[in-house]
Each structure stands twice: as C-alpha cells, then as structure tokens.
Here is the input.
Amino acid sequence: MSQPVGYKRSRPRYEDVSLGVAARSRTHLPAAELANWLRGVGSVLVPASNVSITIAAGTTKTLRYRVKPIGTAVVRVWVIYARASAVTGASSLSVAAPTGATLTARGVVGTTEATRAVTFVEPLTAKSAAEQEISIDLRVVAGGASVLVQNVMCYEMPRRELLRDSTDRGIARETLLSREPVYDEDFVSLGGIMDAASIIDTRRRVTLFARSWPDNITDALSTTSGAALGTNLLTALPVPMLARKRYIGDVVGAVSPRYYVRAPVGTSMEIRCANGATTVDVTHAGTGAFAWVTSSADINVDCELMTASDGRQGAAWDELIFSWRRSVGAGTCYLANVSALDLTT
Amino acid sequence: MATSEHLAFVAGNDSVPGDLSGDTSTISDAVNNLLHLSDSAGRVIVCTADGAVAYPKKSGANTGAWFPVFSSGVFYPLLRDDGSAYPIRVRIGGRAGSATGSVFRIGVCPVGTADFSMSAAAILPNVVQTATITSTTPAWLTTLLSTLVTLTAGQVGAALTEVSTYDAVSSTTPVGVLVCPCTIEVWTKDLVPADDTPIVSGVYAAEYVGT
Here is the structure.
C-alpha cells in the first residue's frame, strides 16, 4: 500500500456527498489524497527575514530561531542570500547545522554587485513536533573577502510518501479505491480520513515572523535605554500579521511571541509586543547568558477572512509592534531573536 | 479559491466513525474540514520589517531602469487543484530616492523568469507595482495597485521540476518530489536616473487560497 503526497492539492466535491447517494470512491479517494497532501507538504519555519550582517573572513556567526514544526518533515532547507565584498570567486560561505558536524555545504558568493542564494539542505535525524531551537552557523573561509548576509529563510522539504504511523498519519490510497470495503481503522479507508479531518493542528502556520541577529554581544541588538516601552522599537516598521482562520465565528487568532535575550546578573529587561490597544509585556531577569524568553501571554491578531479577496479584514493590515527597555540595573541588555509563532492546536 | 462549505473548521467531528462511516453529515463535515485546513494552509514566505536597513540596489544602477533589490531565495509555493499556485498576499515597505519619486514592484517569479517579469513594460499578473513614491521616510507603502500576485497553471506547469530529497530520517536513498521553484522579488526604478537610493525596508509575502 502507498500513501503518496501529491505535488498539488486535490479537491473532494461536496456534490458527491449527498443524502441517499452511496458513498463513492470519487469522494473518498480525493479526501485521502488531500489529507496526505496536508500532512506532507511542508511548512515555512523561518519566513525570509533581514539579517544584514557582514561576516569577516575566518569568522563564524550563529543565527538561532524558535520554531514548533508540524512534525512530519525529514529535511530542512536553509536559503541564505549573501554577497561578497570582492569579485566573483573571491570568497565563499560555509554553512553548517550545529547539531550535525558533517553537514557542511559551501557556496561561492558573488561580487559586490550580485547577491545570490546559498542553499543548505539539512537532513534531520528525527521528526519532531516539539517547540525547539533551530540554528545555523555561517562561516566565511579564511583569506576570503568578507560576506554580507542579507536575509535567511528556512522551510521543510515536501515529502514524497508518508508512513502509516501516528506521526505521519498517511492514508493508504488503495483502501479507498472503488469496491474496496469501508474500514474504521487507523491510516486506511474512512477511518484514516476521519482521523485526519479531526486534527486542526495538521497544518498550522508555524512561524509568522522571525528576525535574528548573531548570538553574541557584538552583533546582537543592544540597549541601555530605560525609556518607556513603546518608544525603543525592535523593528522600525510594524510587523504584518494575519493568523489562520480556525473555527466558525473566529475573527482573531493567537500568536505567541518568543525572544532570545541576554542581560547581566542584576539587570532586568522588559519586552513588549503590542497590537493596537493590546499589549503583552514580559520581564527577563539577567543571568549573564543568552536564553529564550516566552511571552507572558499570547496576543490576538486578525485571522483571515475567507471571503475577502486577500484575506484581510476590512482591507486593513493588522500589525505587531515590538519594543524593549532596561528596567532594572545598569548593565547592557541584548536581543538576538524576536519571533511570532502559531502554536494553536 | 476558498473551497470549504463553512469557510472554517467544524469542531466535534468524531475521529472514529464507527458504524456512522457512511453517514452523510459526518462525511460532509470531514470533507469540509479537510478543505478548510487546505484553504488556510497558506504560509508566510517573507516577513521583514527593518525600516532602518537598506537592501541596496546594484551600485551604478542609475539608468532609470528596473533593478533588483530583494529576493527571498527559492521556495516551493503551494499548488491548488487546478494547477495554479496559491495567490500570494504582498506588501512593500520602503522610501523613495528623492522627492521626485521612485516606483517599486513585488512579484512571485518561477526561477529564471524574474528578469523578464520584474522589468517588463507591462505589469504582469505575477507582479504588482506601487504608484510613484515621493516620501523619503521609510514606511509601508500604501499604493500597491493590488495586494495579491498570482501564478497561472500554465506558468506553474512550465516551471515544474523534480528535485531530490529524502523521505525518511537518516536516509541515504534520495527520492524525487515535483515542485515549482519560485522566488519573491522586489525591484525598484528611479524616476530621476541619477538618483540611486530608493530603499526597500520591509517585505511581506504570504500564501492565501483566495476567494
């Protein structure tokens, strides 16, 4: 039996589901194919985001991101857009996943006038749906020209075929062919379709925004300002947000902010995520090391209006504004990542 | 287009159909839920909002022609049942090079087609353009002529290609998957050819099934 993931979605027809009409393969088969497509198509873990760091020859910079994958992917792809400060071939960028010492790719970066993508494929050693840190090391070879890394994106490769297990939840398509009996069992027949159709977590939006700086006190964003929250911004422009529509009647969706920060012992910082009149603040007491900080609460943003041409409610953009300040002590506060995640289940 | 009957997920649908496996309403809700999950499966492809950071044009690009300032890198858009890509909701932040004005374009382009699509005299369906921007202060631009860019089934079909991946953890046996490699591109053009400083400071692109 096989559980293939189609390259495009299928579409079971409502008109085939009618009272008094026998259930038919032409309804069930596209439904199973759609369920497999949903599970296997892959998420964007890090939407392409500005980095704008210049890495000197012989230097390694590490970017860290916070994600909560769906849990079916086995390969990640990192796309790093970069350019060298000298002519073609004068430098190269080495990319590695810190968790896999052997996973090293190298791409020659172009001239000062050409920015090009360096793609790094990272096979995974385990499927995981846990909220976790993912990171990437960027190293410019010794003796080369410095490299400006402009933006980074990370997504999951689509699967070709799912497994019939509790992680992949692939549905065997042969069990839905014409004249096959109906089974109420896992991963086959109608039982598989009903199971897949009951899991709203099947295709979360995963990450709506992720901005990272290298995880060191030289390159990370820093502040000693104690100015009121709302004035010292983490991004100069507000960040567009539109959550997925979940249940009937929903007009908002929850977004979970995450921060990777550092402050000295005895120094505390406050970070604010604001959306119109709603603010969610979090305080971090310094430990002298970088650490992930979970927001004290989620924040609601507009969810998609499925009848609107572009999904926006009232043709308006909902936006998040992130700001921060030093609230206690005299040390310098650092921030190396700000993210907005979809953790809804 | 949105395909689910209720345009939302129906809660309470039993995951174990048991003897009700042929019940019309149960199957109908299951189909609705699968369709809505697919309709709302759009992913955020690009989200960057650093107003103080410039994505500079090529140096010397002062001819008044269209020039690239931002590319997302290759990604694989979700494809609808008719073979077209999920439309992409887009937004550009930036500022003009001078008060005389600059214009901006954002588009979704199959790999290898960006030069043609982004610099064509006409504005193609996979590209949208701003009106003339004269403000020299970075901001989200409000004059995009549309907030959606689309790829037709024909454009997708011409770009479909098989790429290698793995289908199991720690696998050493590559498999092929069919994808449509694309990039999100932002290009600018100065209305004053000698002016070389329009800046793109924010880019947003997210898939949306459309109406």
Summary: Chain A has three domains: 14-41+160-201, 44-156, 204-341.
